[in-house]
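User: Assemble these into one structure.

Assistant: Restating your components, then the assembled model:
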Amino acid sequence: MKTITVTHVLASLEKDIRFDGRKFDEFRKIEVQYGISKKSAEGSARVKIGDTEVVAGVKMEIGKPFPDNPDEGTIMANVELLPLSSPDFETGPPDIKSIELARAVIDRGIRESKTLDFKKLCIKKGEKVWMIYIDAYSINDAGNLADAMGIAALAALQDAKFPKYDEKSERIVYDEKTKKKLDLSQLPIPVTVIKIKGKYLLDPSLEEEKAKEARLTITTVDNGDIVAFQKGGNGTLTEEDILKMVELSTKKGKEIRKLLKNEK
Amino acid sequence: MKRSWEGLKLIKRIDGRKFDELRPIEAETGVIPRADGSARFKIGNTEAIAAVYGPRGLYPKFLQSQEGAILRCYYNMMSFSGSGERVRPGPSRRSKEINLITEKALFPVLDLSEFPGSTVEVYIELLQTDAGTRCAGINAAAMALADAGFQMRDIVSAVSIGRIGNQIVADLNNEEEHHEQGSTDIPIAMLPRTGEISLFQMDGFIKQNEIQEVLKTAKKAIIQIAKVQQEALKLRYKK
């Protein structure tokens, strides 16, 4: 059974109108705030897209490298859809929705864009490397958590500074942050496009997410190259759909990139 | 047993505060539009947000009470909010204890008898921490419950009172909590109007004749905190 709002979303789309009055390719207002957990996290950020709000934080630890890449550090992305942020989320271990966001939106965008040089995270080959943990949390779910989380994770990485590593004791002194930052060579921006009744919508609201037939999250880097796709929803996409969605996502990705710090 | 710091006198606090001085406080309500009530409470570098959902259905059925809605609180430190290594996600023994004491701190002001068989849920998340997190969580949660429109016979305000050396101090920060002279941490929640105490814990050591000073210091701090909470709640209805 469709809820009343979903029925309205569909009815207004028939008349080429979006339920909240936006243009099809129009985002709600995006706000990026750096350093929201200065006391505790190595890097942190808050992203709001309209009423949707997420936070992300970076913690750095020292670990043993994987045997197949003995001179490379690594990233670990984790997403929690907090029951604080929506009546639809429940307590408990991460469900499939949060795992999809962590792996397909945050981890893949950062890893595949090679924005971080993992070799620079090596302290001692085969023994000690930096492990970069990225944790993203939903604070208020009003639709399009995926894009918000991807942007927040990236902003938190931009904000991050290494803590001091004491070589003598081989331990991290978390109280002392150095000036050394993570060098990001690219800004991989995920932009989700949903398809409803043959129309493509950016930045879906909650109601639109419920009404969607299919969605595609496309992550692009500065020169327009694509570093990740993630298709969702029960419906299918055609070749034409995908090409159009890529075009929309790339264009919007460029605009969003301008909202982030440019440190190059 | 004689403690090494016995008799030592604290001259001033690490961050220059007076003994009974609180860190700067920020409070705000309605920060999470999807929740039935929500609030943010920041004291120094400790920052908590809280959201309330309910009353809503409660399953499994054996948890239901015919006397009224039950109150369930969930305290969580975000993985990046600790002072050292990353905090592993998911509930810990510590967070479960805090869930319990938070429920007990808030329950006495609520009247949930109108909603038998249901549950009221309070979610507390810590964004950054510098000691006093359970108290910040309780302060945010009390505001969120008021914001949700529950009948309450008072606000609940909480503060951690400490003892460093022989000195009683209000609102310890993390550095003070790990003071080399040894320190005592006494989180207290009160109903500011009546002075009733709904949370009282201690981790450390005090002398019997110091209890009254602890409570006096707490009461003074709690009146200040309650004022900030109440102002933030009023602001929501001012145009």
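The longest strand of chain A covers residues 128-140.
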